[in-house]
Amino acid sequence: MPHVTTDDGVKLYFEEVGEGTPIVFVHEYAGDWRSWEPQMRHFGRRYRCITYCARGYPPSDVPESPEAYSQDRARDDIRSVLDGLGIDAAHIVGLSMGGFATLHFGFRYPDRALSLTVAGCGYGAQADKREQFRKETEATAARIAAEGMAVVGKSYAIGPTRVQFQAKDPRGWKEFETQLCEHSTLGSANTMRGVQARRPSLYDLVDEMQALTVPTLIVNGDEDEPCLDPGNFMKRNIPSSALSVLPKTGHTMNLEEPALFNAVVEDFLHTVESGRWTLRDPRSVSGGIVTPAEEK
């Protein structure tokens, strides 16, 4: 099986297709390398597309200790994929957990990112939700360890931001649920404890956001409630960003609305590659409502 090896010796399984400018797809907590199939097929016609399984998701290695899992590890595992494949820089596209990793990758390794697509990013970020998020992640990790992913995956797949997918595309959602229930119990529990529960709040990263100049696309579903306010927050603070909101859409947006998601991301990539993606015009944040600030 093709794999790259991280700095701490973890083997990450990957697949790739196509030729040209590279795109690396980084999956969400409830997904794996298979979650990006609609994007691999679409973008693989014009790009070199790579998708991989995060640590804890077979056929990648499943480290036994929760300490082998963290936001920093998830960020650096993207770099390990690039290094292992001899890629200097790539477009990085991440969803949810993968969106957090993509954003942090842009903070730490901006020279390795041609662009950042940060989709469905924001769960548990708000100050008034931090304690609730901590309790829910701890409880979920404990339940996974006790009951196994074959059981817990079924309830996770019908969360409040997943039912939109189920309603629109029962067949696609069933495939998603089946794949989720196949995940490693140990890897899923450790990822929940080490990455999800311990990641820093987006609201504590204002300085990093304001310094980010890598072209950044933020994408949210309008029924993905936990991500809506954090998405606006990122848009306001990342000067190189744009915000796209997909209508009547939940969290699993790249599978729920693949054609729309692909079109939005493709337009973004083309704009970046044509050199037309610019920083936000400072006049748009001058404080004026109707008239320019100097006229007030």
TrEMBL record:
<keyword id="KW-0378">Hydrolase</keyword>
<protein>
    <submittedName>
        <fullName>Alpha/beta hydrolase</fullName>
    </submittedName>
</protein>
<feature type="domain" description="AB hydrolase-1">
    <location>
        <begin position="23"/>
        <end position="263"/>
    </location>
</feature>
<dbReference type="GO" id="GO:0016787">
    <property type="term" value="F:hydrolase activity"/>
</dbReference>
<dbReference type="InterPro" id="IPR000073">
    <property type="entry name" value="AB_hydrolase_1"/>
</dbReference>
<dbReference type="Pfam" id="PF12697">
    <property type="entry name" value="Abhydrolase_6"/>
</dbReference>
<dbReference type="InterPro" id="IPR050266">
    <property type="entry name" value="AB_hydrolase_sf"/>
</dbReference>
<dbReference type="GO" id="GO:0016020">
    <property type="term" value="C:membrane"/>
</dbReference>
<dbReference type="InterPro" id="IPR029058">
    <property type="entry name" value="AB_hydrolase_fold"/>
</dbReference>
